[in-house]
């Protein structure tokens, strides 16, 4: 039994296969483009390696695409067959169990399997990252933090320590420890200069604390951390666009959108989330985005029955609303009603907050701002559970606030803005300052 770069057992016999596996781990940790290349080569050379099939299945499910469920199910069958033929370590059996749990609609069971591995092998950076990623999809910020903090000591001096610090920085930011997140993320970047996740964690800090100059400088001066990435590099560009938006540089934001965020016209839900949320933010600032909604809506209308992630579906609905695809919007709404009636971890998120959030988006697109505000505000307490980050979900916060302003609900809207500011350590960004100014102006007018 050999050990991989995570200092954990792996049932590979050929040193060349171990090189491929270690290459996969490094690529996955850094969001590199080589992850599927290493995995494909490994499974071709070691067709009885169950953990490789489990990785294929888990990575497919993380993509949040209905058609990849078929790939994941086949990977699960291959993993079980490989285990039956060759056995495997406890670590590998738990990876196969994790895939099976998720395929049965229990992503929390997949997390539990990863945590069992980490209890025995706290140096297993790959399993820690997978637990981190699934919790991110479920919006479990507190769990993400406790999980990564459980393995911090074991990673001191570890070859992959920098990536763990990047994960820790992100969890610190998501739980409101902004100073600690900044320091931890920057320290991690010194150890893992290609850690896009860690860099983006610090970018989150600068977004949440209204320091756009710091964020833009960070991204521009650390291109080696993210220019090697898969489509995650577009997400880094998205962060840069948000920072320019906070400086009021809307022309630069549009240029980043055209040249980088949509450099590749894909329907990957993460790319779609980048694009739709950025266009929505621009429109809320009064920017005419032209025909940019159309190509997004062309993709989104083919995803109305996807139903993998509420987070993805709500961003598809933004595209449909932006392009005025009312029939597709109705199809999404109908499917939400059906999914919400089912039992399970993901359907429960459709029931709450998904249905109310979707109703709010529909009402907003139709100019029914009172209904939009009521629905979005009622969804707000549960929005954490749809996954993503605070920065990503902020597009829905902004729509809620602007719906309240347009509906004339000044007191309730002001309370939401103040709560948003409090969650950002008291930082007032351009969005908050302009909306508070609008409320002050509205209150002065009747008195004149």
H/E order of the elements?
EEHHHHHHHHHHHHHHHHHHHHHHH
For the report, how would you describe the main beta sheet? Answer: 2 strands, antiparallel
Order of adjacent strands in the largest pleated sheet = 1-2
- Structural class call reads mainly alpha
Mean pLDDT: 97
Shape type: globular
* Fraction of residues in H or I helices: over 70%
| Proportion of residues in β-strands | under 5%
Q: Rg to the nearest angstrom? A: 22 Å
Question: What gap, in angstroms, lies between the N and C termini?
Answer: 81 Å
Quantity of strands, as a count? 2
Number of helices: 23
The stretches of 5 or more residues where confidence is low (pLDDT under 50) are none
What does this 3D model show about the protein?
The chain has 448 residues and is an all-alpha fold. The mean pLDDT is 97. The longest helix has 21 residues, at 345-365. It starts with a strand and ends with a helix. It has helices spanning 15-29, 35-45, 50-62, 68-86, 90-103, 107-120, 125-138, 141-149, 161-174, 178-191, 196-208, 212-220, 232-246, 250-261, 269-284, 292-300, 310-323, 326-340, 345-365, 369-379, 390-406, 410-423, 430-444; strands spanning 2-3, 9-10. Helices cover 71% and strands 1% of the residues. It is built from 23 helices and two strands. Helix 1 (15-29) packs antiparallel against helix 2 (35-45) and helix 11 (196-208) runs parallel beside helix 13 (232-246).
